[in-house]
Amino acid sequence: MELIEGIASVFVLALFYWAYQIWKNPEQRWGFAISIVVILALILLLIFVYQKIRKQFSERLVKRVESLGLREEIQNFIRRFRTEKGKNAFVHHDYYFDPDRIGYFVKYLNSKGLKVESDAFKALLVRFIDEIEYKLTTESTRSAPQAFDVLSGSDFEQLLARLFGKMGYSVQVIGKVGDQGGDLIANKNGKRFLIQAKRYVGSVGNEAVQQAVAAKNHYECTSAAVVTTGTFTRGARELAKTNNVQLVDRNELQENLLKHLQESWR
């Protein structure tokens, strides 16, 4: 982008120079006009070649990310640190990243075998953010109601990640085999919010609340919530109230999905 802006600046200056020369030498206007057309064609060709090279480089970089198994970690970086606004923040769409945070993560990627500089990583961020936004756009425009029951546990976690992301949180998906009870961490205004996801038919009991409390302490979060596609038992609600855990049942979840993602779920 900087190269293109530089070329455009040079071309504008050249136009002013040629306009001045034409004003001084009207009889040479056709020669100057042809020169402008030729140089403009060369600039457009240079931009085309530059964009093609940049696209090929991006494709190779994405393949390298895939081969090293780093896609999920980069996606989690985007979800967790996307709202760090600042004077020198890197911005794409409404995603803001602190330059120092990018630098730390680039060092980490280098240690994992992905040899990139900050500028190349920013191009990679743009690519991944565009993928996220495209998926969000296409999945948010489905007209028919979607069913919770067909979702896997991982699918449900991703749905919640999209929901909380739309609500202004940066989200990290942590749920996996052998985890410490939590599924997502949502960050906003310096606070960490532990989310226990239960894609469940029926009533969720005390165990889910206990897991959320334990995971909140393990991941050093300030608060916790259990979100389910079912309902909660009376015991779960009493235990949640005692431990200050927020409970979100099927009805409240449906309302939030419709309000923030404009998606109808049943």
Regions with pLDDT < 50 over 5+ consecutive residues?
none
Principal-axis shape: elongated
The main sheet comes to: 5 strands, mixed
Biggest β-sheet: strands ordered side by side in the sheet? 3-4-5-7-9
Plain-language structure description:
Helix content is 59%, strand content 14%. It has 9 helices and 9 strands. Helix 1 (2-24) packs antiparallel against helix 2.
Brief digest:
The chain has helices at residues 2-24, 29-68, 71-81, 99-111, 118-139, 153-166, 206-218, 234-243, 250-261, and strands at residues 90-92, 95-97, 170-173, 184-188, 191-198, 203-204, 223-228, 231-232, 245-248. It is α/β, with parallel strands linked by helices and 266 residues long.
Topology:
Elements lengths: L1 H23 L4 H40 L2 H11 L8 E3 L2 E3 L1 H13 L6 H22 L13 H14 L3 E4 L10 E5 L2 E8 L4 E2 L1 H13 L4 E6 L2 E2 L1 H10 L1 E4 L1 H12 L5
Parallel strand pairs: 5-7, 6-8, 7-9
Antiparallel strand pairs: 1-2, 3-4, 4-5
Helix pairs in contact: 1-2, 7-8
